[in-house]
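Could you show me just one protein sequence together with its fold in token form as a worked example?
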Amino acid sequence: MDLLVVGAGEIGRWVADTADAAPVDASVAFADRDPAVAADAAAGRDARTVDVDGDTTHDLVCLAVPMSAVPAAVEAYAPRAERAIVDVSGEMTDALAAMREHAPDLERASYHPLFAPPRVPGNVAVVVDEDGPAVESLSAAIEAGGNDVFETTAAEHDEAMETVQAGAHAAVLAWRLAADPVREEFHTPVSAALDEVADTVTEGSPAVYAEIQRAFDGAEDVADAAAAIADADDEAFAALYERARGDGEGRDRLE
């Protein structure tokens, strides 16, 4: 399988390494708006670079670009895909809509690795919009890397991201920004765990996290919940506490 990875950042390199390590006989090419980044990704790998504005064609084109750039990237690169086009951006509704519009005759799928590449393997959500041998080979390669690939829908995925990404990141960053520095001995198991999670969240790229906040609602709900807790009297706090320790069904959003 001849694979073109568009976007030679961490996730694009993970795609290339995953395909190269699996028994799918893949050859990999990188394209990136910064040729130096593409060259760096190809160096040390059995990979080559191609021009982002070129006309090379490939069995499968994988878009590893920012979420907001996916629709335009689909339009630009669909003509260079012979069998399949997929993305690993993290937003699925708009990505798949663009694929249906610009690549109606190709295999199509949207993958979302639910981890940063330094923390592989992990769970990978996927919506297979049009199945076929190329998409099956890529899914098999991801699974061969020890990842758990699970199917979802675009709507279910994007709604979940409001909680597990936008809301979770907002809550953790808000806690870190509001927290005063304390001696390590003062940390409780809860605050120590939060501090560790905050370290994980802040080790990435601000641009990536900003993109998540723009793409998904969730931060506003966290802010509303924090305000409700801050303003609650004893009775209201007890009610909020009981809702928070429910089994999930009771943790509905605040009215």
User: Anything to note?
Assistant: The first strand starts at residue 2 and ends at 6. The domain at 2-152 is CATH 3.40.50.720 (Rossmann fold).
